[in-house]
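for the recovery benchmark. tokens below, seq after
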């Protein structure tokens, strides 16, 4: 089969399109013939070495396709079933393995392309809005990178839960996109002080939660946006990792909380 593999960490130039052996599904595993592979920021972290992995490695953390074969003890799916999965590396290939417990059937009304693009970012938006901080009707929430993959989903989920949504973006085009998907207010952080604008929009009260996938460039001012006992949910680092934090910083900002959530149990 063909696969996109990495033999050394670095930029996009380290991606190699090459031949690889089709893997065999062992006990509890499912072999999927990939129709669509999701592309996510975590792929760039793994490619660059920011999230180091054993090399060589085939990238891609989610995929959708048709079951080609199943391993021993797998009964929930069978060859020919349309399925999707997430959080199992190897989707940048014609065939990929996934543990059976991660595989879900795809309803006929949903295309393989949609399923391949949606699961990882969709689950991220769900756990951020339901578990990391359970959004309540009437909450005002701040979503950074509101026009990104997770950002657009998070805006929509927050609105469905009854929240007022403030988003930040970098361009006019992204602002229009976030507004079209339901954001109530959009701040172009390249032109405005987003913390000052959030405080203006909330009449100085701040917000109970900030969802931040940007990292280094937004971290300090995200803390300034929080109301007392508010939560900063830092779930990415698209602009670089955050420097070590003195816990007293959280005290001085109003006894706020910091979470680095992930898709674990």
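predicted aa per position
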């Amino acid at each position: 089969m063909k696969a996109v593999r990495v033999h050394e960490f670095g930029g996009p130039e380290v991606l190699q399109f090459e031949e690889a052996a089709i893997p065999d599904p062992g006990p509890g595993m499912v072999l999927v013939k990939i129709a669509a592979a999701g592309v996510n920021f975590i792929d760039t972290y793994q490619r660059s070495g920011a999230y180091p992995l054993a090399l060589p490695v085939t990238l891609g953390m989610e995929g959708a396709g048709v079951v080609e074969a199943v391993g021993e003890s797998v009964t929930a799916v069978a060859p020919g079933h349309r399925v999707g999965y997430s959080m199992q590396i190897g989707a940048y290939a014609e065939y990929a393995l996934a543990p059976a417990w991660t595989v879900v059937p795809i309803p006929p009304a949903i295309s393989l392309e949609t399923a391949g693009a949606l699961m990882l970012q969709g689950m991220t938006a769900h756990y951020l809005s339901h578990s990391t901080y359970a959004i309540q009707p009437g909450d005002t929430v701040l979503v950074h990178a509101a026009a990104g993959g997770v950002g657009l989903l998070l805006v929509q989920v927050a609105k469905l839960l009854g929240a007022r949504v403030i988003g930040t973006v970098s361009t006019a085009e992204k602002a229009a996109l976030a507004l079209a998907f339901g954001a109530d207010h959009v701040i172009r952080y390249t032109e405005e002080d987003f913390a000052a604008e959030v405080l203006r929009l909330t009449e100085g009260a701040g917000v109970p939660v900030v969802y931040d996938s940007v990292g280094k460039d937004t971290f300090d001012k995200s803390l300034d946006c929080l109301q007392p006992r508010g939560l900063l949910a830092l779930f990415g680092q698209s602009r670089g990792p955050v420097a070590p934090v003195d816990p007293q910083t959280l005290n001085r900002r109003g006894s706020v909380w910091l979470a680095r959530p992930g898709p674990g149990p």
